[in-house]
């Protein structure tokens, strides 16, 4: 089962993913950072480049998710989901293409929406600012809601507090009776 970490750049998603990896959990790092670090795509250069970048990320993410689907009885934590690019298109006022319209998210059990952290850490990949981060958080929430993915808010706090929200929520979901179908509201209340 997939648990997605989403939200604005610099919100602490990758830090939490690393803490889970260090604890022996199955994780998938952010594919977009990998693609940007290769230096081939620069999504900030305009619409055609952003679209080419998103297509490459979607191709790699889909392949990784298909590979990780073999862990059916375990939680797999994803640093961003396939539908995150939709939020970027929307916030920049750019049209969606067929790739975006064909995206699905029913394989995501829950999305943890990370609130932006205070301050800003330039990691050499990010090109957005704190104001953008706050706006992006709201857009990401709307996108995940529109796909019917239950959302658990992860408020700003220490990395340990954020990790506790994730692990305690997943523990409650995992301990539910077999066959229980959770509603978005129940998952949010489990957090």
Q: Largest beta sheet, briefly?
A: 5 strands, parallel
Q: N-to-C terminal Cα separation, in Å?
A: 17 Å
Helicity level: 40-55%
Secondary-structure content class: alpha/beta
- What is the number of E strands? 5
Write the CATH architecture name: 3-Layer(aba) Sandwich
Provide the low-confidence segments as ranges: none
Strand order of the largest sheet: 2-3-1-4-5
The fold-level CATH name is Rossmann fold
**How many H/I helices?**
8
Write down the Rg. Answer: 16 Å
What is the number of domains?
1
What is the ordering of alpha helices and beta strands? Answer: EHEHHEHHEHEHH
User: What is the averaged pLDDT score?
Assistant: 86
CATH H-level homologous superfamily name: P-loop containing nucleotide triphosphate hydrolases
CATH class descriptor name: Alpha Beta
Strand percentage: 5-15%
Shape: globular
Write up what this structure looks like.
There is one protein chain. This protein is α/β, with parallel strands linked by helices and 191 residues long. The chain has a single domain, classed as Rossmann fold (3-Layer(aba) Sandwich). Helix content is 48%, strand content 13%. The chain has 8 helices and 5 strands. A 5-stranded parallel sheet has the order 2-3-1-4-5, with helices on both faces. Helix 6 links the parallel strand 4 and strand 5. The chain starts with a strand and ends with a helix. The mean pLDDT is 86.
């Amino acid at each position: 089962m997939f648990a997605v970490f989403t939200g604005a750049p610099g919100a602490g998603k990758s830090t939490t993913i690393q803490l889970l990896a260090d604890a022996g959990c199955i994780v998938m790092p952010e594919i977009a950072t990998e693609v940007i670090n290769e230096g081939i795509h620069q999504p900030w250069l305009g619409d055609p480049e952003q679209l080419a970048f998103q297509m490459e990320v979607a191709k790699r993410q889909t392949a990784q998710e298909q590979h990780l689907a073999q862990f059916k009885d375990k939680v797999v934590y994803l640093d961003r989901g396939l539908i995150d690019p939709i939020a970027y298109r929307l916030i920049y006022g750019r049209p969606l293409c067929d790739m975006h319209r064909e995206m699905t998210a029913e394989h995501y059990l829950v999305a943890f929406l990370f609130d932006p952290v205070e301050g800003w850490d330039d990691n050499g990949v990010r090109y957005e600012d704190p104001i953008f981060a706050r706006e992006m958080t709201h857009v990401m929430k709307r996108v995940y809601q529109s796909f019917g993915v239950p959302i658990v808010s992860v408020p700003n706090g220490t990395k340990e507090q954020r990790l506790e929200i994730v692990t305690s929520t997943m523990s409650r979901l995992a301990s539910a009776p077999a066959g229980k179908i959770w509603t978005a509201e129940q998952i949010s209340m489990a957090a």
